[in-house]
Amino acid sequence: MPNNPVRPDARKILEIIPQTSHIWTFRVENNAPIKHGQFMQLSIPRFGEAPISVSGFGDGYADFTIHKVGRVTDELFNLKKGDTIFLRGCYGNGWPVDRLKDKSVVFVAGGTGIAPVKSLLEMLYNNPGYAKSIYLLCGFKSPEVVLFRDELATWEKLGSAAGTNVGDATAPSTRWATRIVESNFSKHVAEHLSEIPFASYGDDLEVVVVGTPAMMKSVGLQLLEDGIPEEKIWMTFERKMSCAVGKCGHCRIDETYVCLDGPVFNYTLGKKLID
């Protein structure tokens, strides 16, 4: 019998890792194949279902970094290690991993926007030389809400050890820079884009942007103003995805279904996805 693409399966919570008081990472049993940037549907009987990006995965597990903001997530935060939730998926198109090969890759993430790119960052960290260089710019409202502190500290040390000449053609083939900034209503992460040495990258560049719609719009416009071609910019649109298989229409924008055609989009299409 073929697998039912919308049937959830019971899975055990293997570990719960608090990130902040209202954002936790749930490590859940999983054997379904995952691509970086995809999402799964998490459900709790009698409380509902929610689409959640995969923030990490490995042999037998998937990580979901979740903000406590609604009915399903409120109940999820009442669960503990060993309890059961339900999963279905993975769904959607992920990040263009093949296009990052031998490129200088710039990540711009705001707040919880780092979660959908964390597994990709870990892949690049674990495969030195896959990308020519990495520049990670993270914006958080305050030090109290910084996510993945251990990973960020590791990546910061890697950048310090490699030096500061990110993108220098004469430097070793793998370089890494991590910049964590405070991004709140008075100062936006887009204001720090001038610190990134775009001119040194030439055409061997891909830019990944993840955050709120307002953040991605402002960063995208600033990148274009700085001369970055549209086709080199990638974003993820995680909006109103319900069925995840293109049937309910909740995530449809014109003729585009975010759950099927995305959630990762190239800017050439993403710029047109306006409600």
Overview in brief:
With 275 residues, this protein is an alpha/beta fold. Helix content is 19%, strand content 32%. A 7-stranded antiparallel beta sheet has the order 4-3-7-1-2-6-5. Strands 10-9-8-11-12-15 form a 6-stranded mixed beta sheet, sandwiched between helices.
Topology:
Blueprint lengths: L8 E10 L4 E7 L9 E6 L3 E6 L2 E3 L2 E7 L3 H6 L7 E8 L12 E7 L4 H12 L6 E8 L8 H14 L12 E8 L22 E6 L2 H13 L7 E4 L15 E2 L2 E2 H4 L2 E3 H4 L5
Parallel strand pairs: 8-9, 8-11, 9-10, 11-12
Antiparallel strand pairs: 1-2, 1-7, 2-6, 3-4, 3-7, 5-6, 12-15, 13-14
Describe the structure.
The protein has 275 residues and is an alpha/beta fold. The chain folds into three domains: 9-91, Elongation Factor Tu (Ef-tu), domain 3, CATH 2.40.30.10; 99-236, Nucleotide-binding domain of ferredoxin-NADP reductase (FNR) module (Rossmann fold, 3-Layer(aba) Sandwich); 237-275, no CATH class. The protein is 19% helix and 32% strand. A hairpin with a 4-residue loop joins strand 1 and strand 2. The longest helix is centred in the middle third of the chain and has 14 residues, at 149-162. It is globular and about 55 Å long.
